[in-house]
Design brief:
Distance between the termini: 29 Å
Number of strands: 14
Helix content: 25-40%
Structural class: alpha/beta
Shape: globular
Radius of gyration: 21 Å
Bound molecules: pyridoxal-5'-phosphate
Number of domains: 2
Length: 355
């Protein structure tokens, strides 16, 4: 039995893997991988996936759901291009690697970026607070959960300006008020499905209003909405498997139930990190992510011993990102509390041996 704490691609429920595997072999008589994306069978899959996203997140009327390609990385460009208006300026919050990626891509398409809040001074180990959100810019952008550094916004940014959010690593982990956002985007592979699809939830009002003179057809969200997310061949396997995972989520109580499971998992792990003298959290207090917990050993000479122990317990993907070091336990929706308990037991045993 493996316990996959990997940061992405994500763990998915075993039932979802099995049903996805079946469809690769037999999807109404053909392989899912060979059916036309224009066939009524696949169009039904796309429509169900879109409607399950709306159902899971209570998406209000006036929003469209798209499954595009290019990952959240192309989402940086797409969101900036589609939100560019008269001032060609925007406010961005810099909370780490992915936020910086978004800032760089906005600059690359000609946006004058005002980084009005940043946690770079402390290697991104906190969420900047009480920052003054600029007025008179076209839109505001932030990253709700910082996958690498293990920080997470607990509140939506308060602004009257159009709001854009990269929710790659915490979408579907808890309820979110979609009506506050103009664009939400997320690479599928962190909490939704296999890599290949990028989810966009777009307020229809913003479509077709970009002031950018550079607007390739694929990057214009209006074209995708007009074609029902079938402007070109969609990533069929990723969309299908995401649909299965959304069905599974809704059958198991939806995001509200997922949120309480995620709370319980995060609490169990952070309690152990805080009470165990051989570990320390890389992030403090309320800013800690419920999806990605980053932590360090207090005594680095014990690293090999701890690594051997968790590897032997079947734990996968616990190594921290090089920008933080130490360990990172990603606890996406499909990771069970039992897996978290295996990890906390190993941490306890490790400390008993070295106490
Ligand atoms: C993983 C990740 C990205 C990059 O996603 P790709 O789909 O690989 O481009 C961007 N933002 C966040 C928050 C992420 O976790």
């Amino acid at each position: 039995m493996k316990h996959n704490f990997g940061a992405g691609p994500c763990i998915l429920p075993q039932d979802v893997f099995q049903d996805a595997a079946k469809a690769v072999l037999d999807f109404n008589g053909l392989s899912l991988l060979e059916v036309s994306h224009r066939s009524s069978d696949f169009v039904a899959v796309m429509e169900e996936a879109q409607s399950l996203v709306k159902k899971a997140l209570n998406v209000p009327n006036g929003y469209s759901v798209l499954f595009l390609q290019g990952g959240a990385s192309l989402g940086f460009t797409i969101s900036a291009l589609n939100m560019m208006r008269n001032t060609k300026s925007a406010g961005y919050i810099n909370t780490g690697t992915w936020a910086k990626g978004a800032i760089n891509e906005a600059k690359a398409v000609g946006i004058d970026v005002n980084v009005f809040a940043s946690s770079e001074d402390q290697n991104f180990n906190y969420i900047p607070k009480n920052s003054i959100v600029p007025n008179g810019v076209d839109f505001i952008h932030y990253t709700s959960n910082n996958t690498i550094f293990g920080t997470q916004f607990q509140e939506i940014i308060n602004t009257d300006l159009p709001l854009v959010c990269d929710m790659s690593s915490d979408i579907f982990s808890k309820q979110v008020d979609v009506s506050k956002f103009d664009i939400i985007y997320a690479g599928a592979q962190k909490n939704l499905g296999p890599a290949g699809a990028t989810l966009f939830i777009v307020k229809d009002e913003i479509l077709g209003k970009s002031s950018s003179s550079f607007m390739p057809k694929y990057l214009n969200l209006k074209n995708h909405v007009d074609k029902g997310s079938m402007l070109n061949t969609p990533p069929v396997f990723s969309v299908y498997t995401s649909m299965l995972n959304l069905r599974h989520l809704i059958e198991n109580g939806g995001v509200t139930a997922a949120a309480s499971r995620n709370e319980a998992k995060a609490k169990a792990l952070y309690n152990e990190i805080d009470s165990n003298p051989l570990f320390k959290s890389a992030v403090q207090g309320i800013d800690r992510s419920k999806m990605n917990a980053t932590f360090l050993l207090t005594n680095d000479t014990l690293k090999d011993q701890f690594d051997t122990m968790w590897n032997e317990a079947g734990i996968i993907g616990l190594k921290g990102h090089r920008s933080v070091g130490g360990y990172r336990a990603s606890m996406y929706n499909a990771l069970t509390i039992e897996s978290v308990n295996v990890l906390t037991e190993i941490m306890k045993e490790f400390t008993r041996k070295n106490g």
